[in-house]
Amino acid sequence: MFTCQRFQDIFHTMLHVGNPDAEGKEKIEPFINMILSNFQREFYPFEEVSIDEMVVGFKGRWLFKQFNASKPKKYHIKTFGLCDAATGYVLNIQTYFGGDTSYKPECDPDGSHAVKIFETLPTPLGTGHKIFADRFYTTRVLIDYILQKKQYYTGTVNLNRKGFPEEIKDLKLEHRQMKWFAKEDEAILCVAFRDKKAKKNVVMASTDATVATIKKKDVVKPLVIDTYNHKMNG
User: Fold this and answer.
1) pLDDT digits (tens, 9 = 90+) for 125-167
2) Which residues contact 104 (CB under 8 A, 6 or more apart)?
3) Are 220 and 214 in contact (CB under 8 A)?
4) Which residues form the signal peptide (predicted)?
5) Which H or E run includes 196?
6) DSSP sequence for 203-233
7) Is pLDDT at 109 greater than 70 in this prediction?
8) Residue 91 in 3-state DSSP?
9) Of 60, 90, 111, 188, which is least surrounded by CB within 10 A?
10) Which helix (H) or strand (E) holds 82?
11) Cα 177 → chain centroid
């Protein structure tokens, strides 16, 4: 532990001690990879982990700086993070450099962006982990890939994604109503739920869920949705 001021002094000078001839991401990635190797050596995650976009607020000069008014930091550096769901501990980070983003070398160059991220970020993980992510990543191709890796996946679903029950797209639910979808020959369970304050259904797919509900504050909802809300806090 050390003071905030010491952290700020280190933070604002650490990127100026690299290779003086480095350009682009080569100025940044060697330092980030060194930090991440230390992170991964000191802590191995519990069973549940989450993968999500992580934005770093930044208004300086940066070729890949992005603007999104809906984000807490409108001008930001886009990264993707793998975190332990119980503690929030950061296990791996992937900085977005556009077409020059450093995916795992074995990744299919023509593969989907979501699969590339899930091939790269969970590298420190063994089998049996439960991964939580949002609808940006959830595709049928990704879920099948994770099952092959002997891991589990739970995430929200965009209604226009292929490979999920067609009934979900035009499903009309009353407030607090829920419906489940599953096939006997597949390991994926889908649920649609309409909360009282929501304008549209919440749809979720999971390879580690059962048809079960939980009651919270007089509201009965699917257990998998309640679990997702807690585990994504990482």
Assistant:
1) 888 899 999 888 888 888 888 888 899 999 999 888 888 888 8
2) 116, 119, 120, 123
3) yes
4) none
5) none
6) EEEESS--S-EEEETTEEEEHHHHHHHHHTT
7) no
8) strand
9) 60
10) strand 75-84
11) 27
- Alpha carbon distance 6, 1 (integer Å): 10
CB-based burial label for 117 (10 Å; 0-12, 13-18, 19+): buried
Q: Contact, 138 vs 204, CB < 8 A?
A: no
pLDDT tens digit sequence for 167-195: 888 888 888 889 999 877 778 899 999 88
d(CA 195, CA 5): 45
C-alpha closest to that of 193 among 208, 172, 207, 163: 172
Q: Which among 88, 80, 90 has a CA at the least distance from the CA of 118?
A: 80
pLDDT computed for residue 119 by the predictor: 86
- Rounded CA-CA distance 211/225 in Å is 11
Q: Are 61 and 77 in contact (CB under 8 A)?
A: no
The 3-state DSSP class for residue 200 equals coil
At 85, the amino acid letter reads A
Task: Calculate what percentage of the chain has a pLDDT beyond 70.
Answer: 94
Q: Is 189 helix (H, G, I), strand (E, B) or coil?
A: strand
